[in-house]
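One thing: could you explain this record?
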Amino acid sequence: MKKSSLPVTAVVIASLICFFVFAGIQSFAKVNSKSFKADIIVYGGTSAAVIAAVEAVHSGKSVLVVSPDVHLGGLSSGGLGFTDTGNKSVIGGLSREFYHRVWLHYNDPAAWKWQKQDEFGNKGQGTVAMDGENRTMWLFEPHVAEQVFEELVRENNIRVLRNEWLDREKGVEKKSGRILSIKTLSGKSFSGKMFIDATYEGDLMAAAGVTYIVGREGCSVYNETYNGVQADIKERGHFFPDPIDPYRISGRKESGLLYGISPEPISPNCRGDQKVQAYCFRLCMSDHPGNRVPFPKPASYDPAKYELIARVLDTGWLGWFNKYDRIPNRKTDTNNHGPFSSDFIGGSYDYPDASYEKRREIILAHETYQKGLLYFLSNDLRVSEGIRAKMLDWGLAADEFTDNGNWPWQLYIREARRMIGVSVVTEQVVTNKTKVPDPVGMGSYNMDSHNVQRYVTSDGRVQNEGDVEVRLNAPYSISFGSMVPKKEECANLLVPVCVSASHIAYGSIRMEPVFMILGQSATAAACMAIDNKSAVQDVPYNTLKKRLLDENQVLEEKGNK
C-alpha cells in the first residue's frame, strides 16, 4: 500500500479542519432549517390551497404550502363528497381537473370495493353523478378526494409543511404595506413575494391587518333583501312545521328553556348582527355490515340535550333520513336536514375570531353534540322503535378517517371572516342585477345560509331563524377585486376563500368547486404581479383575463363574453 507523503501531523490537522467545516455547515443548516423562502407562500390546507400551489408550479414559480392541517383538501376530503355544484358548465380550469381525476378513479373496477358500479346508480344533484360525456365525477368518498389532492402535490413536487399554525399575534412581518414573511408557532419563518390566504378562517388576512367582517350585514348596507335577520322565512324544511313547546316542562316557562334555545328576543327583520350560520361535520356513514362502526357514545353524553328532537319526532315528522346522500361504495355524505339535525345552531358564533385553544373547544363541542345526537336516535326510548331499528343499519364508515376514530378531521366552517376588499360581491351581483367588470371565475349555487339561531316566538313556540335558500336563474361572475385587499392595507396578499362578499352572497360562493376556481385565479394574478414587480391590485385585468381563459377558466356566460 502506498503511504501518504504528508506528515501525520498535517493529516490530523487537515482532518480536524474538515470535521469543523462540516460541523459548521451542519450547524448553519440547523440554525437556518427554520427559514424558508419561495416566490409564493400559500397558507392553508384546503382544496383552494392545493389548487393555488399547483397553478404556481404550472406558472414556473416556486411555492410553499404552509398548512395547519395534516390532511389536505379541507371539506372536499373531509366528508363533503356530495358536491354542491350548481351549474357544472361554469366549473373550469384546475377545479374541473380535480373532478376529472375523480372520474378516472371510479372508472377502475378496483375502486368499487363495497358495491358494484351498476348498483350505485348514476344520479345525484339532479344530474348524472358520473358524467362520461364530460369525463367528470361529482360524488366521491373522502379518501378518494384526499388521494387526488396528494397526487397533485406529488406530481408537481410541491413542498407542503403540515401542522404549521400561523402565529396570529406576531407572526406577520410587514413593511410599506407588503408582507415580508410569516412565522408559525413552531418557530419557522416563510419569506415570499406573494402570499395567499386559503384558509376557511382568514387567519393570515386578519393577522396582516386587512379589514374584514364577521356575521350578517343589515339589508340596507348593500341594498339587499335576504341579509340580516330573516325571521319571516319559514316555508322550507329547516324550520319547525308544527307548534312545539320550548320549555323543559311543557307549558311552564319557569322550568327554563330546552337546550340550544336562545333566551334573546328576535331582532327586527333585516337587522344585521355578528352571529354566524351553523356548522356541522359532514359525516361519511356506511350501511354495509362489513364496513360500518357503531355510533360511539360521547363521554359527556346528556340525553336532555336532545329532548327537542324527541318532541319533533312526536309530531310525526319523518325526515330524519332524508339527507343521507349516497356516494360510492354504500356510503353517505350525511348533512343537516330538517328543524333539528346535525347543525349545532348557536355553537359557531365565537369561532371566527377565537384563539386556537378556544376553536379546539368549539370543534370538540360540535363533535360531542353530533355524536350524542346519533347515539340518542339509536338508543333512547324517547325515539320510536322504527327509527332506532333503522339507525342500527348505519354506522361510521370504517375505512374513512382511520386515524381519527372514523370521524372527519374538518368541521364544516360554512362562514367565518369575510374580507372587505377592493370590491364586494353582493346579492345584486349574485342575482345578475349588477355585472362585475373584472371576472375571475363563476358561481351558480343557490344563495344558501343555514340557520343562525333558535328562539322563542311571540306566541310561545320554538322556531329557527337564518335559513335562506334562494334559487338563481343563471350563473354569475365573481370579481377579481373580491379576492384582493385594499392596496393601502396589503399589496401582496390574495384571499380566494374568505372573499369580499356580503353574508348572503357568500352563501352562494362558499362551495368547494368555486374555492378551487378562485385559488387558481388568485395564483395566476400573484404570478403576474411578481413578473411585473407590482402590487397585485395593479395587475392589468385584460392580461389576467387572457391568461385565465387560456387555462380554461370560465369567467362569463357565453353570451356576455
Q: What stands out?
A: The two ends are 81 Å apart (CA to CA). The CA atoms of residues 378 and 391 lie 5 Å apart. The chain has a mean pLDDT of 93. The first helix runs from residue 8 to 32.
